[in-house]
Amino acid sequence: MNKKNETSKLTFMGVMLALTIVFILTSMVPNPASANIAVLLFLPTILTAVIYGFKSGAIMGLCAGTASLLRALLMPNSPLDPFFINPLVSVIPRICIGLVAAFVFALLHRKLKVNRIVSSSIAAGFGMFTNTLLVIGSLYLLYGQGVTGILGAGFVVALGAIFLSNGLLELTVAAIIIPIIYSAYSRYNKIK
């Protein structure tokens, strides 16, 4: 990669990291929009993975996960935040967002020659689903009883409700927004 492309990539990743941090900090402020902003938290990771591939997607996921961990550690605002201090809950699933989104996009668009907009939409959905599945799975495996006590409901019921409400919303929003942004970025940068 030449120096101009490397600078462009680093600039893009810096902007995506800044957006992630803004979304994390904004979602902390209790207001009706904070749940909606929380849906946006990992879109920069997915977009980076779709545009720049595995390595960049994993790096952006690492940054997003680390920011989530630091927020849970330094500025907790949820009864579940103590669980997110564990990197297996906060960081690893976020790295996997980037890896899965990049893999699905590469498989569909580059190998199977599926339209890039459709590929980016499906990759975004898989990236968000990966996050939800791994976070819920790690909470279950690591803290089943502790989470049950905090949520005041059966673990499977409580996390099933979280998955059906947040997980499906995040997946749908990602599958709609990422292709729009990716399409605009591709046209601007003449990516085929």
From TrEMBL:
Cited InterPro entries: ECF_trnsprt_substrate-spec
Pfam family, any one: ECF_trnsprt
Keyword Membrane: yes
Transmembrane feature ranges: 12-29, 35-54, 59-76, 88-108, 120-143, 149-182
GO MF annotation list: transmembrane transporter activity
Keywords, comma-separated and alphabetical: Membrane, Transmembrane, Transmembrane helix
Name by which UniProt lists this protein: Putative membrane protein
Organism from which the protein derives: Alkalibaculum bacchi
